[in-house]
Amino acid sequence: MPPPASHHPARDASRRPPRFLIVEDEKRLALSLARGLTAEGFAVDVVHDGLEGLQRAAEGAYDLVVLDIMLPGMNGYRVCAALRAAGHDVPILMLTAKDGEYDEAEGLDTGADDYLTKPFSYVVLVARVKALLRRRGTAGGSSVHTLGPLRVDTAARRVLRDESEVPLTAKEFAVLEQLVVRTGEVVSKAEILEHVWDFAYDGDPNIVEVYISTLRKKLGAELIRTVRGAGYRLEAPR
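RE: above sequence
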């Protein structure tokens, strides 16, 4: 297995295939994912233990980490939290056999960028990792998006309005992030549900409207426009 790179992945990602780390103790699943992602053109390393996964991810050689929650040594929640506490902003896609709002909220609260419940479609997994890579590359690789008095840092997961921090829950931030990385574009309710809640979510889709309403109250009603029959559009204040 090649030694970890000593550079930051985002600096020269255009000159090499994106490198993924899969941390999954189900060896058959891990190797199957590795083969599939390698066929997609990605470079993939696999480990089966949480402690080893943390050590490898902390070396900073990866563009994305696919992280199971139920792991020997250290569970995925703790691995994710430790990486974020140490300042690592690598995108993390969490995998779990569990389901339910509580588990998903815990995963997002520890700093995960997306969440997938087993069993999942491989096609959906590939779509998710590609979406995370595109998000990473938004605005020339910058994680800070400025809209008038509002600054959204998707890496630090912070929102500032007129230099004062606006506290958001993990779900509120995740909804806002879907809009901010596509500022000026219409984002459908279905797209928000798929990326923030989970592709298999079968609850009330109007939950998106509830979070949009909360974001408007916290950030300003003029920021998020409803496009009737299509979705929502984030607009910079005039």
